[in-house]
Request: fold
Amino acid sequence: MKTGSQDGTSDPRLLAVELLVTSARFNRLVARETPPMIPLALWRALAQLEELGPARVNDLAVADRVSQPTATMLVQRLVEHGWVERHRDPLDGRAVQVWVTDAGRAALIEARHAAAEALLPRLRRLKGRELRSLEAGVRALGTLIDGDPSGLAESE
Reply:
């Protein structure tokens, strides 16, 4: 990883590129090593709906960067599994929202635990300091994701 500059500080652009490349590699690794409990596209859509909360199909399409017909097909498959339900939008009776069911949340938990189990052998090979660094990196990534999207609340 070449994110540092000559003065010892991190170059945010290089760090951003490295983060994108490494996170994509990590996601592919998890997909390869995890038992196929939920098809990856359904897992992604279900997790996206869990994060969004009750959402219209178009909201899912935008958030998941897929076409409206693709999002509709994903929702239909999720409904068939009992992982989501369609409900009338309380603000617009003509529209429908998609809600994650208890069975959908349980399927996500099960898939996440299976993925974690698949990663355990790799995590166990890390030494104490590496593991603590990884923990700190996960916390920092959470802050990056959940933080101020405008960048106005930068610290230091």
Summary: DSSP finds six helices and two strands in the chain. Confidence is low (pLDDT under 50) at residues 151-156. Residues 70 and 95 are 18 Å apart (CA to CA).
